[in-house]
Design a protein that fits this description.
The protein is α/β, with parallel strands linked by helices. The chain has 12 helices and 10 strands. An 8-stranded mixed sheet has the order 3-4-6-5-7-8-9-10, sandwiched between helices. The protein has a two-stranded antiparallel ribbon with strand order 1-2. Strand 7, helix 10 and strand 8 form a beta-alpha-beta unit. The radius of gyration is 18 Å and the shape is globular. The N terminus is likely disordered.
């Protein structure tokens, strides 16, 4: 969505749509710099002008001084789940249709943003918390900044709750959302379903706590996720951040899910958009369809798409039957803002 459209939509956001905190049972301090402006911000969003190509070694990206200590988290912390020496050769376990051009665009965008003075990575846990639980060292939020004052989205990659496949399953989504004016975060979380949801709850709480400094609108925020990340988005949508150790906050205005066999729902779930490939051997599309039909029967706004020939983990789906699904999902999210 362009800047003009984003500005016009602000008139609609005044009413919000997330609703009050749910009644289910189930940040650290710091200065956050303002959004970048002008040509540098546009170039960063497009990923143009960066130093990386498909032939750039992955280790070189991770160690680039502009990224500091968080460069290692751009790729999965557990190296057993990815392979390839260069950006063009990157492969991730359980994922298909990885686009090397998008991988290069993402790392160049992050490089441009960081080089222009933006903070592109935020710790969600304090140093004391990380010292007490070393696994929290491998967590945080990558921020793809959009228009100041626009709503935010948190994108959650899959990886079987064993690792975080961000380069295919959350970074591309966050980058594209930022191009449309939205403020998008990509969460790097701990392995395990419970700990992953706790990290997402903490991330949402962090964003709400720092909303003014981050220049994001917290009304009608959305949660996005693929595979395991889709389960995270759905669980937080059903039960809210407080159910997983976060603050008492509104649930999201929309949940956007890809290729997951998640079937649980609370009965008053947020509006939900879902899509999946018909050849997905991990998340059967009929399971996803049944859940969406159940939500629809409860009067909850839904939208569902299934694509012939596609397998698990297609990400943005560029060059496939799913291409363009993200624009449909954005339209669905915007529909909940009205």
């Amino acid at each position: 969505m362009g800047c003009l459209a984003a500005a016009l939509c602000l008139l609609l956001w005044l009413g919000g749509c997330g609703g009050p905190p749910p009644g289910t049972g189930e940040g650290p301090a710091g200065s956050v710099p303002p959004a970048g402006e002008g040509v540098e911000q546009v170039e960063a969003a497009s990923g143009e002008g960066g130093p990386f190509t498909a032939d750039t070694p992955i280790e070189e990206v991770m160690g680039d001084p502009v990224f500091g200590e968080y460069g290692r988290l751009i790729f999965p912390a557990d190296s057993g789940y990815w392979s390839g020496d260069t950006l063009g050769e990157l492969r991730l376990t359980w994922y298909s249709n990885i686009d090397p051009e998008k991988t290069v665009e993402i790392v160049n965008s992050l490089w441009q943003r960081a080089g222009a003075g933006e903070t592109v990575f935020y710790d969600i846990y304090t140093e004391e918390e990380k010292a007490a639980d070393p696994e929290k060292e491998d967590t945080g939020l990558f921020f793809f900044r959009g228009e100041p004052g626009a709503p935010f989205a948190v994108c959650n990659a899959g990886g079987g709750f064993a690792y975080v496949g961000a380069m295919q399953d959350s970074f591309p989504h966050a980058l594209e959302l930022s191009k449309r004016g939205y403020n998008a975060f990509a969460l790097i979380y701990r392995p395990g379903a419970q700990t992953a949801c706790e990290d997402l709850a903490r991330a949402i709480s962090f964003i709400f706590d720092h909303a003014g400094e981050l220049e994001v609108d917290t009304r009608c925020y959305s949660l996005w996720g693929g595979s395991a990340g889709g389960r995270m988005a759905a669980w937080l949508g059903s039960y809210g951040p407080a159910a997983f150790g976060g603050e008492e906050l509104p649930r999201p205005g929309a949940v956007i899910m890809q290729y997951t066999g998640h079937s649980d729902y609370a009965g008053d779930d947020p509006p939900t958009f879902a899509c999946v490939g018909e050849n997905d051997g991990i998340a059967g599309w009929r399971t996803m369809e049944r859940r969406i039909r159940a939500l629809d029967a409860l009067g909850i706004p839904t939208e569902f798409h299934h694509y012939p020939g596609l397998s698990h983990g297609f990400g943005l789906g560029t060059g496939t039957a799913a291409e363009g699904w993200l624009d449909q999902a954005v339209d669905f999210w915007e529909g909940q803002m009205e």
